Amino acid sequence: PCSCRSAGLLPASTVRLDREKVSSIGKLRRLAEIHSLYLQQNRIEKIENLDSFPNLRFLCLAGNRIQRVQNLRALPHLSVLDLSRNQIRVLDAEELPRSLRILDLTGNECTRQEGYRDLVLAALPHLLQLDSQPTHGNAPEEEAGDPSSSEEEDEELLPEPRIPFTVDRDFLAAVQRELAGRARRRR
Predict the structure, then answer these.
(1) Where do Acidic residues bias regions lie (predicted)?
(2) How far apart are CA 39 and CA 102, in angstroms?
(3) Bridge partner residues of 37 (DSSP)
(4) For a tag on the chain, would you pick the N or C end, based on fewer CB atoms within 10 A?
(5) Within a 13 Å sphere around the CA of 49, how many CA atoms are in the beta-carbon half?
(6) CB 116 within 8 A of CB 110
(7) pTM of this prediction?
C-alpha cells in the first residue's frame, strides 16, 4: 500500500519508524549519515543502541514506554530530543547530552520533581527551550570576557515548534538551517 512516508518524500538522512509497533531499538551497523530519527508512538521501553547513529541531531521517542533517560551521552551532536508522554518518573539530568538545544519531557512524572526545571537548566548550558517554554538565557555565561562569545547569540531562540513539533517534517530542516547560520556567524 502507498504511504506518505515513502522513501522518496524524505531526505536520506531521516528515518521514520513512528507508529510501527517497534518494541526495542536493536543493534545496527554504524549509520553516520542519519541525522533525524522518528520513533514516536511505539512500544519502546529502553533507550539503547543509539551509538549506531553518531551524527544524530534530532530524536523523537514521544509516546513510548520509556522509564529512564539513559544511553544518550554517545550522541554528541543531538540538538532536539522529544521524550514527551513516556513513563519517566525520576530524571537523571547527567544522562542528557550537553549539546541539546530543545528538550521535551512533558507528560512524564519527572516534570513534577522538586526543582526539575533548575536541574535541567543547570545540566544543559545551551538549552533554548524546555517543555515548549523558552529558557530565556538562563544558561551560565560561557567564557566570560571572551569577545568572540556573544550573549545576544545565546538569547536568540529557534523558530517556535508546533505542538507536537514531531509532526512537522520541516521543523528539523529549520533547526539545522538556524544552527548552520549561527556557526557561520561565529566564524
Answers:
(1) 140-158
(2) 17
(3) 15, 59
(4) N
(5) 11
(6) yes
(7) 0.68
Residue 49 has a CB neighbour count (10 Å cut-off) of 14
Instruction: Please tell me whether residue 181 adopts helix, strand or coil conformation.
Output: helix
Q: How far apart are the first and last CA of the chain?
A: 48
Return d(Cα 65, Cα 75) in angstroms, integer: 21
From CA 4, how far away is CA 37, in angstroms rounded? 17
C-alpha cell at 116: 526539575
The structural domains of the chain, ordered by start, are 11-136 (3.80.10.10)
Question: Mind listing the pLDDT tens digit for each residue in 19-49?
Answer: 878 888 888 888 899 999 999 999 999 999 9
For residues 53 and 34, is the Cβ–Cβ distance under 8 A?
yes
Q: How far apart are CA 156 and CA 137, in angstroms?
A: 9
Helix (H) or strand (E) holding 134: strand 133-134
Question: Does residue 123 sit in helix, strand or coil?
Answer: helix
